[in-house]
């Protein structure tokens, strides 16, 4: 798989893959397109901004593709609308639903993994709305009692559970059948939480925050903190890497344009980094393969990345260590360069200096 990209007319805020990872939808203020992903390029098949019949006088904050039906896309808008698009139709009929239940900007939309007509949204009005595509307005309202809901994600492990993260640093777990009160709530971060992602295999939830950390929570019973990753910038997006239990991708909100892949067991140095974007990356989607993923960015691009092209920051780190015992002795170790076998004396003296007591 090769790394390639396609430029756009404006910044891209979000992307989503269809269920078999062959097509990608992207959305932004001036962008709303669908591409087929070929071996070495993206081929445009639909440009909804180009249609004269559609009223698109809003910025698309998020896009979600139905995981059961390739015909349906949902978008979250800055004007508070949640729209559902039917790609088999033409003109105005493409916009099958235009929900106007939210009072402020909608930050996230997420289709249910197994229920084809179910959709949830999270908004800056502090609520989450649960939609049935066969009904003209929300069928349930969930009140977070926070200033803004930044992300909502259905659990892949329980068809009735979804998570929501908020500006006040909290995580809420809800049962879709019980909108009157959340099942669990806990403080996860010292600043606003911008994103969350369920692990595809374990009952782990990753959360990302303005406090420059990514945290991994085990939600088997009571929430317990398993891992904390320390980053150089506020994190806006996280996505678990498929088939790699301990790997997660992240995008920063400011400063850092790289997409970093972390091994959660090594919290300070990324396992791999991708530096193609020239402005902040706005999303990551794995193509069902641990070696290939897509990303969108504020630099007006859509990329496909091959893991073969990653830089490896850990390999450039200094392999040095120091240890102190209870007697006050110091042990110091460092990497030594290769020395020819016929220079045994130098080799031995270097080895002693490298791993000796000082």
Describe the structure.
Helices cover 3% and strands 46% of the residues. The protein is mainly beta. Strands 1-28-27-26 form a four-stranded antiparallel beta sheet, with no helix packed on it. Strands 2-3-4-5 form a four-stranded antiparallel beta sheet, with no helix packed on it. Strands 6-7-8-9 form a four-stranded antiparallel beta sheet, with no helix packed on it. It holds the Pfam family WD40. GO terms for molecular function: zinc ion binding. Belongs to the WD repeat WDR24 family.
Question: Which tags fit this structure?
Answer:
3% helix; 358 residues; 4-stranded antiparallel β-sheet; 30 strands; mainly beta; single chain; globular
Strand content: over 45%
- Which outline best applies? globular
Task: Estimate percent helicity.
Answer: under 10%
Tally of helical segments: 1
Quaternary organisation of the protein chains: single chain
Q: Runs with pLDDT <50, length 5+?
A: 346-358
Largest sheet: 4 strands, antiparallel
Radius of gyration: 23 Å
Give the helix/strand class. mainly beta
Span of the ends, CA to CA: 50 Å
